[in-house]
Amino acid sequence: MRTPRRAARVAVVDSDGAVFLFRYDNEEVGVHWALPGGGLDPGETPREGALRELREETGWTDVRAGALLCVWEHDYTRSGVPVRQHEHVFLGRGGRREPAAGVAAAHTEDGILGWRWWSPGALAGTREALWPPRLAGLLADVARTGGCRGVDLGYVPNRT
């Protein structure tokens, strides 16, 4: 039985369409890349949680959580506890930069191994695991149409 967990993330995209991702290595799903974000605090809305997590993990306070990009559910093990996580992913716009000084402790605590800005081409061509897994296509749709549709990806099982 998995513990339900609510979470939210922000897809921070720069003016060239590159997106900021963190690299993780999880005991259950292995190495993968994910957007800044994490679990919601009690009473927190997904948008509030996404911005709090973005601030804690990057130090950035000038990115707003815009339109809903997608929602999805997935399983993983967090601190030894199997969870089924339901995530809201919001689109944010921001300039390309490094995380602020002083967030390294949060990265260590969250198991973040590194970070990178991914160009649309690199994102579309990667074989590395991405959370959410359809991120390249979702961001390509935004670039093509200029807006988000708030796609429900449903439950996505882990790759084996």
UniProtKB/TrEMBL annotation:
Residues in Nudix hydrolase domain copies: 3-139
Top-rank taxon, per record: Bacteria
GO molecular function: hydrolase activity
Entry coiled-coil feature ranges: none
UniProt keyword annotations, A-Z: Hydrolase, Magnesium
Bilayer-crossing regions: none
Pfam families: NUDIX
UniProt key word Hydrolase: yes
Keyword Hydrolase in annotation: yes
InterPro entries: Nudix_hydrolase, NUDIX_hydrolase-like_dom_sf, NUDIX_hydrolase_CS, NUDIX_hydrolase_dom
CDD domains: NUDIX_Hydrolase (cd04685)
Cofactor: Mg(2+)
Protein family membership: Belongs to the Nudix hydrolase family.
Protein's name in the database: NUDIX domain-containing protein
Organism ancestry: Bacteria, Bacillati, Actinomycetota, Actinomycetes, Kitasatosporales
